[in-house]
UniProtKB/TrEMBL annotation, chains A, B:
Catalytic activity: pyruvate + phosphate + ATP = phosphoenolpyruvate + AMP + diphosphate + H(+)
UniProt keywords, alphabetically: ATP-binding, Kinase, Magnesium, Metal-binding, Nucleotide-binding, Pyruvate, Transferase
Gene Ontology MF annotations: ATP binding; kinase activity; metal ion binding; pyruvate, phosphate dikinase activity
Name of the protein this chain belongs to: Pyruvate, phosphate dikinase
Span of domain PEP-utilising enzyme C-terminal: 536-888
Length: 901, 901
């Protein structure tokens, strides 16, 4: 048996690695008894050897020869025969579909002698010479690497001199002349005549296909699609069939269902008297596939039968390419068809109904990214638009509103019923109110994990960030467009967070029914009437049935908690308390920071206590009966004060011209200077702050305990868990836990409600915490992996700084396959998660493990978290359905042992 | 056998854990036949049980009774006997000496009846009643927790009314009266009479000693000395012997050699007719021990013989306490004696000479901290001084000079022959020139690992930092003292980096001969004539003989390299290139940063190339024949530009009043804003910068290669190694290595010198690098652990920010035993080092492993690096001898399996 060449009977659909997708599926069809033109496939292994060594394997030519002989026997024709030549096509076909990225050469076998044989046999000299000129043209361009325009110019000239518009209006003499000129071009450009030896043509074409693996466009495509560069392509050498032999011939493409909507029934296009490349080139308009029935019922019926057979066999939507040669149907390709996200859900459910797949398999047919797509609001694609810039698609969705450059203004306008887009160079925690009030956020700086992007995604709010073409001047409330025009506060702008596009004026929006379903605003009848929603509901039910992993939400207020619950969260995995310190409470926090006596500090804390307690009461009520993990204050204190550069400049200017800076500003400046940190990410935060500011964390613990007591007295079932952030050493947690336990006992005594069982745990968000998890677990009753911070410290870069600076460079160079802030870096950060999970559980077998970083809602990361045995993931409310789905998919992936991603 | 009480014959010197140091050594002496008063020891286990449960073990009282009976039998006296009472002392004694931190009660067994017996037996009623009042006083204060002043007041009154100054002038009647009054105080204050039952006295005293383990001063002392809080103390119950029975009696302390200089010959003090506490209280002046020979030759001779025996037995300097009771010598304590650093070296060598210990043991008797002490310049301790403040002892040494507040001024003055102290609120890389020029650095902000401290230690430059009492106003060039006085630029100040003290005016300095020895400025005769220098030389030779670990130096210029070589470095482990970008070259770096075209950037790089090449030529020459590891540029570019706050304020002010900011300032501001990072430590640095700024790292590689080629052509033997900083993923290194290899080939071709074998490696300074070291080692030919950065990212704190903020708090609370920037955190950072070393070596067995963080010169850390099998440590030139010594000590530690630290 040959090593580098396979015939159809040796292949099957599972040999994609070796035979490529096209070759494997042709073999599969052949073996199913479906008519496929006799074909052999040169393996990807041969390609890899060729690409590595620069020449094909020594035995390849002989192997090809041997298989050509088989094709000749099957066809009863001989390659290059002057009477009745066998013609071959040479087609690329890699493991993963790379449509149009690599090369194809048709009509191999034609030469000055055999073209006459083809003319005689087909009784169609025009067809024969048209086929010959096609070979010369493709060979010249693809194999000999000549400029394609040289050939196109000749064709254009011929049409011009004949006064016709289309190739189809040229006759045999025209083509004979064109053939002569094409041969001249080749001889002139390469210094060699076009090879008349068909075997030389064939081998050269095979090499050209190998080489096309590394064409610029192929490399670019692979990078974008994350296809490994080392796979290589297989090459399929097929007996030519012709759809261009007259009205009984034709060619088409089809899907076994509608790939856009998932609706049942075949869906395709047909072109009479044409070859595949004519369909692609769009020379004539295609007709609906259904019309083939009237043209050639027998061929149509056979096609329908084959499509039905394929779908049952592949258990999925298939797409196909076929040719009818004088009434005889040939299948040229099939594969599991690409489809829209909506179609994926609908089809998966149809296939369950049809008994073709089970629920577990249906889960493998969809994914979280698809579901996320279905949840974003979107602009009406048919509406006219004026695009003014393109930034990063930071948080999907479509939003329109008046431009505002200031968060307070955003809140004011929004309260008065206006829709606004918050426009900033970049955002900071102070903009939160404005971000909540706005329909969307547009920034000119920062990447996909900038503050604006992260917070927006967390809120399910549309965001375009880093739109650098826009010159945003916050002070003058203007935005200069690339063409020099100026937009001003109050002007209407529309932003598409799915594409990153920014439009002038209003673009109408389409609201997604899937979100309405999750929100519970659709009636049962409405769900039943909508194929997509019904399918999503069914898939979600399956995911919930299979999944082992719990899904909680990151929510800081009652509204988000309630939404998370509607979206299927089984608790709050991360309730950040810093947002409770902003807005109108900022003045209290300033008092706390500026307090220069213990009494002053105590007074400020006491003023904050009832406000925090109120927050918790609302959240516990919204999540009644479900756990709420409250993280004690994490960010450094100076985040609550003005920026040092801003206030320094203000004071300096006031000192020079304003008659001196105000005492208030001077005090503030002194505090800002005192608290200023070179690297706030690595500064006085989290538990360090709790250990430094006496009473801060215990005030928060007291607010939690008192809120819980109040809820219990009101007949509720609050389930708080207290989480200490940024622990790096077990002592830190132990000291804090002791203090929290004291507060629990105090409040228990004061209220008469037993609160001493509130779990106390910690974030694992520093490498050292992961590396000493065994010690930390002695005190911690739960771990929650803060994978955002853990990624920052493990890699040593802060997402505020690096993403815009070098992430795109790193992605382009292949250092990152995907941003480690988007998908968990399994080798580095993941290893720490695994170490901590294992050693934590070893020290405390009942240790509860969760994750509350952004990765909790990322499909690939969810699978990893499932695999390392975490108990739950927590993500933003809007990502909860995605996480539920992926948790279900992870479960069936685990069960089947195959990776569905 | 009893569980909680040991008699002397059951103990020995190795049972310190159980019997404490005093108890173990008393047993040892007893078993050597040395006269020790009959004693039993209550174990630390009993103490721990007492401290945990709040009461002593149930069996303890009975065990004590049993052992008291043995003491009674040995003495032929009975406790509390009215005719001839046995008296006991109750003394604390923990595993580690905690001098004066815990309690002692003497004369247990005296009561109203037995005091008369003692008076009769001793024929000295005054002595008996003095002893009784001492018991009452100690018991009242220590056991009953009464205010000691109550008793002192009575004594003072008695002396006053008798018109005498000293207790010794009071007679028996005075003491009888005092005893009565003391008993009154006890009854009045406690509501109970002083217990007449000697066994009740004894048990209460034992409990008091247990309790004193947790006295405030004991807790504080343990924290400072890193003694674990859970050890507890043993209690020694000794038969009383009396040095206060007249002129044939006395008490003393002694060392077997001079603990200050190490000089041979006994050294001690003696006090006639006195008890131990009188020596401590300093009531009378002691006489030199030698004078005992004339007072009581027999006792003296016996003592000399015992001291000689002890030294031979303990193989070390011993200190002892003894009492002579009416001509009979009793040993009350011995232990291996504390000594100065100088004495430690001298004695260790004497003991080798005397054949008592071998060289390996001598290495265990000294350590790197001691050696470091011997290397610092110091103020003459006898000189008069005016102290004005105390800061942190950041970098040891003693420096005097004129105050300058500006680095340029420092350089100017220094060039003109003036000694200066650079005075700043804090320093930054721009101050480097000034720091080099200055004798020492004084700052009012920042901790022991602030920029000033780290750089100063690296340079062996004296530094006091964080002297917060001083109000430093750089703009007005003044320093306000705590008393309100003002010092100005040009005033003389002296700083002691060993104590952190700051003095007004000049304090004369003593230059350390050990440094002169390392510098090679002492003749052989001078070395031979100086006990200390000779001993240090001998110990260093032993360390070099034993050590496995190489020692290199961190050096950025030829001068440091040459010094490092003199100090015994076998190469440069870290040659930072950023310092080569400062000073007069800053303008070139600014050009590079501000260049807005590729050509402009190339031009700037080309201008830098010959300068860098020149730097390397000098360094390679200084280190000819030895490896020089050059780290490519690490810090973010904005470190070469002005501070954002400063320039923003300057531009803002100029815009308001100065008629507009200059174009230059505006351009600079724009660049500063563009490059500004929230967390520069986690930003665009190291290899990220190299991958972003085209040509930067290859320019540096070219400068290295060209310098090497030039040195080779000049007959030299340069051994450069190129180190890529801040690698987190193997792709980063691979891309850079490919680029460096290209440069090597280019320069090889251009110069005709083969440079293609220059090793290329990486820093391991990010957790991810350690976690993926196996992959990185595929490209890296060496690893150098950057433990400073690795500590920062593993713990998630930046040393710029945290040390002043919460490190002292963390040290106080016991979260840190020692700052992880000072000594490597073995559990967290060390685990990463271990993982990387193991997995790196697995992937590439010949991988060379070193460390170039500050920890490379830290004694404890050196031992760890030796244990995990690194090939070398690299540290600042001044730490090289310390590292050599510790590497030697680590080797003998490994060999013996015992931990010498």
């Amino acid at each position: 048996m040959s090593a580098y060449v396979y015939d159809l009977s040796q292949g099957n659909k599972d040999l994609k690695d070796l035979l490529g997708g096209k070759g494997a599926n042709l073999a599969e069809m052949h073996n199913m008894g479906i008519p496929v033109p006799p074909t052999f496939t040169i393996t990807t292994e041969a390609c890899r050897e060729y690409l590595t060594t620069g020449s094909e394997p020594a035995s390849l030519a002989a192997e090809i020869d041997e298989h050509v002989t088989s094709l000749e026997q099957a066809a009863g024709k001989k390659l290059g025969d002057a009477q009745d030549p066998l013609l071959l096509s040479v087609r690329s076909g890699a493991k993963f579909s790379m449509p149009g990225m690599m090369e194809t050469v048709l009509n191999i076998g034609l030469n000055d002698a055999s073209v006459e044989g083809l003319a005689a046999q087909s009784d169609n000299p025009r067809f024969a010479y048209d086929s010959y000129r096609r070979l010369l043209q493709m060979f010249g361009k693809t194999v000999l690497d000549l400029d394609g325009d040289l050939f196109e110019d000749v064709l254009d000239e011929a049409k011009l001199s004949r006064g016709v518009a289309s190739d189809t209006d040229l006759d045999v003499n025209d083509f004979k002349a064109i053939v002569a000129r094409f041969k001249g071009i080749i001889a002139e450009q390469t210094g060699r005549d076009f090879p008349q030896d068909p075997r030389e043509q064939l081998l050269a074409a095979v090499r050209a296909v190998f080489n096309s693996w590394n064409s610029e466009r192929a490399i670019l495509y692979r990078k974008r699609e994350n296809i490994p560069a080392e796979l290589g392509t297989a090459v399929n050498v097929c007996t030519m069939v012709f759809g261009n032999l007259g009205s009984k011939s034709g060619t088409g493409v089809a899907f076994t269902r509608d790939p856009a909507s998932g609706a049942q029934g075949v869906y395709g296009d047909y072109l009479e008297n044409a070859q595949g490349e004519d369909v692609v080139a769009g020379i004539r308009n295609t007709i609906p596939l259904l019309d083939l029935e009237t043209i050639d019922k027998a061929a149509y019926d056979e096609l329908m039968s084959i499509m039905s057979t394929l779908e049952t066999h592949y258990k999925d939507l298939c797409d196909i390419e076929f040719t009818v040669q004088e009434g005889k149907l040939w299948m040229l390709q099939t594969r599991v068809g690409k489809r829209t996200a909506a179609a994926a859900f609908v089809i998966a459910c149809q296939l369950i109904d049809e008994g073709i797949i089970d629920e577990a398999e249906a889960l493998r047919r969809v994914d979280g990214d698809m579901l996320a797509q279905l949840m974003f609001p979107r602009f009406d694609p048919t509406a006219p638009k004026t695009k003014i810039a393109k930034g990063m698609n930071a948080s999907p969705g479509a939003a329109t509103g008046r431009m505002v450059f200031d968060s307070h203004e955003a809140v004011d306008l929004s309260v008065n019923g206006h829709k606004v887009i918050l426009v900033r160079r970049e955002t900071n925690p102070d903009d939160l109110g404005g971000m909540i009030a706005a329909q969307g956020i547009l920034t000119s700086r920062g990447g996909k994990t900038s503050h604006a992007a992260v917070v927006a995604r967390g809120m399910g709010k549309t965001c375009v960030c880093g739109a650098e073409e826009l010159d945003i001047d916050v002070k003058n409330r203007t935005m200069k467009l690339p063409d020099g025009r100026m937009m001003r506060a109050g002007d209407i702008v529309s932003i598409d967070g799915t594409t990153g596009e920014v439009f002038e004026g209003e673009v109408p929006v389409v609201a997604p029914p899937v979100v309405q379903y999750f929100e519970g605003t659709l009636s049962e009848e409405e769900v039943a009437a909508d194929d997509l929603v019904r399918s999503v509901a069914r898939i979600m039910a399956a995911a919930d049935k299979f999944r082992r992993l719990g899904v909680r939400a990151n929510a800081d207020n009652a509204e988000d908690s309630a939404r998370a619950r509607r979206f299927g969260a089984s608790g709050v995995g991360l309730c950040r308390t810093e947002h409770m310190f902003l807005g109108t409470r900022r003045s209290l926090v300033e008092r706390l920071i500026l307090a220069d006596t213990p009494d002053g500090r105590t007074a400020a804390l006491e003023a904050l206590l009832p406000l925090q307690r109120g927050d918790f009461i609302e959240i516990f009520e919204a999540m009644d009966g479900l756990p709420v993990t409250v993280r004690l204050l994490d960010p450094p204190l100076h985040e609550f004060l003005p920026d040092i550069t801003e206030i320094t400049a203000r004071v300096a200017v006031a000192e020079k011209v304003g008659g001196g800076a105000s005492e208030e500003d001077k005090t503030l400046l002194a505090a800002v200077e005192r608290l200023h940190e070179q690297n706030p990410m690595l500064g006085l935060r989290g538990v360090r702050l709790g250990l430094s500011i006496k009473g801060l964390f215990t005030m928060q613990a007291r607010a939690i305990c008192e809120a819980a007591a109040e809820r219990i007295k009101a007949g509720g079932d609050p389930r708080p868990e207290i989480m200490v952030p940024l622990v790096g050493d077990y002592h830190e947690l132990q000291i804090m836990k002791d203090a929290i336990r004291r507060v629990e006992r105090e409040v228990s005594e004061e209220t008469g409600v037993d609160l001493t069982q509130i779990p106390v745990g910690t974030m694992i968000e520093l490498p050292r915490a992961a590396l000493t998890a065994g010690e930390i677990a002695e005190s911690a009753e739960f771990f929650s992996f803060g994978t955002n911070d853990l990624t920052q410290t493990t890699w040593g870069f802060s997402r505020d700084d690096v993403e815009a600076e070098f992430f795109s460079n790193y992605l382009e160079r292949g250092i990152f396959k995907v941003s480690p802030f988007e998908s968990l870096d399994v080798d580095g950060v993941g290893r720490l998660v695994k170490i901590a999970a294992e050693e934590g559980r070893k020290a405390r077998p009942e240790l509860h493990l969760g994750v509350c970083g952004e990765h909790g809602g990322d499909p690939a990361s969810v699978h990893f978290f499932d695999k390392v045995g975490l108990d739950y993931v927590s993500c933003s409310p809007f990502r909860v359905p995605v996480a539920r789905l992926e948790a279900g998919r992870a479960a069936v992936e685990d069960a089947s042992g195959s990776d569905t991603r």
